[in-house]
UniProtKB/TrEMBL annotation:
InterPro entries per the UniProt record, alphabetical: TPR-like_helical_dom_sf
Superkingdom: Bacteria
Gene3D superfamilies: Tetratricopeptide repeat domain (1.25.40.10)
This protein's name: Sel1 repeat-containing protein
The organism's taxonomic lineage, starting at the top: Bacteria, Pseudomonadati, Pseudomonadota, Alphaproteobacteria, Hyphomicrobiales
Length: 89
């Protein structure tokens, strides 16, 4: 396990298979683009955060981009959602 820090947040990095990381990244892209309806930056940030924690450098960049359009409250909500997802998966 590796400990990484992104945007001031410490993450435990666990190497995952490429398909899982790609799936998390794709979910973030779908949420950011509104593929399933309206654009949801909170959901996008959550998925990008999870993919970044698994080593996706693309996800780090996308998460940074969407966070520039979000309030601190929205970012905190996205981070909570990512932690909740991790507690189940």
């Amino acid at each position: 396990m590796t400990v990484l820090q992104f945007d001031g947040v410490i993450h435990r990095h666990v190497k995952q298979n490429a398909c899982e990381v790609e799936s998390l990244l794709r979910r973030g892209l779908d949420a950011a683009s509104g593929k399933a309806g309206a654009c949801d930056l909170i959901e996008a940030h959550k998925w990008f955060n999870l993919a970044a924690m698994r080593g996706s450098t693309q996800a780090v960049r996308y998460r940074r981009e969407v966070s520039q359009e979000m309030s601190n409250t929205e970012i905190a909500e996205a981070q909570r959602a990512a932690r909740d997802w991790l507690s189940v998966h």
